Amino acid sequence: MAVPNAASDAAFTGARVRADRLSLKGPHGWVYRDVSLTAVPGSLTVVEGAAGSGRTSLLLTLAGRMKPTGGTLAVDGKTARRPIQRLAALGLLTEVNPFDEGLSVREHLNERLAYRRRRDLARTAFSHAGLDLSDLPEGDRTLARRLTRDQAVRLGIALALLDEPHLLVVDDADQGLPELPRRRLWRTLHELAGEGLTVVATCTDARDAAWAADTVVTLGVSEEER
Description:
This protein is of the alpha/beta class. The chain is 27% helix and 22% strand. GO terms for molecular function: ATP binding; ATP hydrolysis activity.
């Protein structure tokens, strides 16, 4: 179990997440069903599941962006969606909040900072996300379409951290990444949790994340089988 740093040293204040038999049923059947998990502040929870198992929908539910049809969810004791939304931030979810491929990294950043007073958050956010702008082809002028998958995921994390969230959700953490970048990304998420943030990330295969995760939840497996 990850142990967050002392309150005076922690970079983030994590949320406690408790889902009990959370379910979502759509017009074509169950999207996900009877998912239970508890994530404490400063922990990394990995949700593993095949394509079509409801991974993305579960993340959106945990972050207050989608309403479940069954079960209960509390994030720091909040059960209504709007208060949960204020606590949770979304990393890159390709089908939900894709980057504008014609905009640069700087333009995406400025867009997110437009209504924030603390513009100094950007440097810290990029550092925590493990994204060095000097490694990009044209620095912060690099267009989103020129980013590698690893860089895009890390940019999504950095932009999410600008919201100063208590809960960060990251989708498809292992998608399109070779083994080494995949392991490095899990290390970054593990380190964010170590700084006090509550992190929930999805993947298709959790074997590379086992060392980093405090909890692994496999979708499509009943609670009794876990």
